[in-house]
Design a protein that fits this description.
The protein is an all-alpha fold and 460 residues long. The chain contains 34 helices and no strands. α2 runs antiparallel to α3, α16 packs parallel to α18 and α24 runs parallel beside α26. The mean pLDDT is 96. This is Leucine rich repeat variant.
Length: 460
């Protein structure tokens, strides 16, 4: 695949491009394409498009640079266009160019669904079709603007009301229309919409539909009075939806802390604005999910955390181990927990002291060792030992540890797992010379990442 190259690191953009061309590697060439001048771009383009199978690979690959995808869009090949239309990395201008010459409705539908398709293209598509699936694709695209949505409502009556009621760009006037003519599901979507007119809040609040009231309770723009009313609704699903609302008065929260439904109490327990009295009440809740959510609250006192650390349910103890306010003494205690999942949480906790991490590093469980390997407080000698772990996940955790030194990371340049080698390219601890040793890596993703990294250095 590749010719023998000079091992010395390129000292300029021109040298980097020369190496990519000499290598004959499409992934290295794609990585430096945006860095090249007109002459070298032509040579790189010839390399990239020489083999149809290579073109198809790059057209499908989500990491292919936007300018290379734009290059491929100029080829007269339906299979290539299909892959470009589906590729999440294809950018707005390329999609516009593809649409301009497109006649196949299946391809146009893919463009209409694409996350990077512009509002202008969606507007144009809408003016050229009445096909239900294609119009629905336009309406569901987050990039469709209010003008396009209004046109859909005008041209297709109530055919797409459900999609229009859920679209973030739908404006208040259209929402009023949709609510007035919609069924219960459309009305529920309208009352939850961020642009829902307050006049609709008043109308919807008088209904007895749990579906509509539940969605109304999730709208962050309802006032304190309405949120309180919904939080005390007879239907637990409405109360649960309202229980997380930021405008709830304290007296309502005091009621919800003792709600008969554990689903409501779980939502309340996850709030960070609980008073000490509320937390004490939830501390003794019979539902372990309530205690688990409470155990994550950074406002818990030391004594409350110690109490929850003795909980019979492992997920509650794990939550204590994850709490940012849990002190080192309690973490050391939890490091001896019988449940691996709890010990793993201790290993991942930034507050865990180095002495405890050294003990955890002697255990066999991969989740615990992965947490130790990722912890910034883990001593370097321990990281060096873990870098030779049989687990690729543990070795990768060492690589992702910002405190890992060059000496610790150098052996990992020969890691057998390609993803680990690729992640080393972003390491600040390794020098450019260290990274360049991967220039002829057997994995294309590693080569692409390396040449991309060097391209960015030369663009600065």
């Amino acid at each position: 695949m590749q010719t023998q190259l000079n091992d010395s690191m390129p000292g300029s953009a021109a040298e980097l491009i020369s190496v990519a061309l000499d290598s004959g590697d499409i992934y290295s060439a794609a990585a430096v394409y945006g860095l090249a001048d007109f002459h070298d771009k032509k040579l790189l383009a010839e390399l990239i498009t020489a083999q149809r199978r290579d073109v198809l690979k790059l057209a499908r690959w989500q990491h292919t640079p936007a300018d290379v995808l734009a290059l491929l869009a100029g080829l007269e090949d339906d299979a290539v266009r299909l892959r470009l239309d589906k590729n999440p990395a294809t950018q707005t201008q390329t999609l516009s160019n593809l649409y301009r010459d497109e006649v196949d409705i299946s391809f146009i539908t893919l463009i209409a669904k694409h996350a990077h398709t512009s509002a202008d293209v969606l507007w144009q598509i809408l003016h050229t079709t009445t096909a239900t699936d294609l119009v629905r694709a336009v309406v569901k695209n987050p990039n469709a603007d209010s003008k396009t949505l209004a046109l859909v409502a005008e041209k297709f009556a109530d055919q797409f009301d459900a999609e229009l009621a859920s679209h973030p760009a739908t404006l208040g006037d259209l929402l009023m229309t949709l609510y007035a003519r919609g069924n219960e599901f459309v009305q529920a979507a309208v009352v939850a919409h961020k642009a829902c007119p307050t006049a609709i809040f008043t109308i919807a609040a008088k209904l007895e539909s749990s579906l509509i009231l539940r969605h109304l309770a999730t709208n962050p723009h309802i006032d304190k009075r309405l949120s309180a009313r919904l939080a005390l609704d007879k239907d637990y699903s409405v109360r649960r939806a309202a229980a997380s609302h930021k405008n709830l008065p304290v007296w309502v929260l005091e009621e919800l802390v003792e709600d008969q439904s554990e689903y409501v109490r779980r939502v309340v327990a996850a709030r960070e604005d609980l008073t000490p009295e509320m937390m004490n009440c939830l501390l003794a809740d019979t539902d372990h999910w309530v205690r688990q959510w409470l155990a994550l609250n950074p406002k818990l006192t030391e004594s409350q955390l110690y109490s929850l650390a003795q909980d019979e349910h492992k997920e509650v103890r794990r939550a204590v181990a994850r709490n940012p306010k849990t002190n080192s003494a309690l973490l050391s205690q939890l490091a001896n927990d019988q449940e691996v999942w709890v010990r793993a949480a201790v290993a991942n906790q930034p507050n865990t002291p180095a002495s405890t991490l050294i003990i955890l590093a002697e255990m066999d469980d991969i989740d615990v060792l992965g947490g130790v390997a990722a912890n910034p407080k883990t001593p370097q000698k321990v990281l060096q030992r873990l870098s030779y772990s049989i687990s690729a996940d543990v070795r990768r955790a060492v690589i992702l540890n910002n405190m890992a030194t060059r000496q610790t990371l150098l052996p990992l340049l020969d890691d057998p797992y390609y993803l680990n080698r690729m992640m080393l390219i972003q390491s600040r601890a390794l020098s450019a010379d260290d990274k360049w040793t991967l220039y002829d890596d057997p994995d294309p993703a590693v080569r692409f990442s390396l040449f991309t990294w060097f391209s960015r250095q030369y663009q600065q």
